[in-house]
Amino acid sequence: MTLNNQSGTVTLDIATGSIFIVTLTGNVTSWTLSNGVVSGEELEVHFLQDGTGSRTLAGAGGAMKLAGGALTLTTTASKRDILRFRNIGGQFWETSRSMNVG
After folding, report:
1. How many domains does the chain divide into?
2. How far is CA 68 from CA 7, 28, 95, in A?
């Protein structure tokens, strides 16, 4: 699922797919997941900077457990950061992270 022109609050509806490409056109103040809480489910999220870059990301939803507890995006224009998660017990645990790709 490709989500273009995202800023502010971003909701990823897992019922629509398990791979999301989120193009950031402004700062994201919060991001959450909705629907599809199946144990063992995998999720992949690409945060893609637009041609301007310098977009930030804050406020991961409580169901997402990030490695190290936080995430600072690459802010270079047209670069992406890729996060992978696995659902264990109703929470999505980060299993890998690829930064500054592309």
Report:
1. 1
2. 24, 20, 12
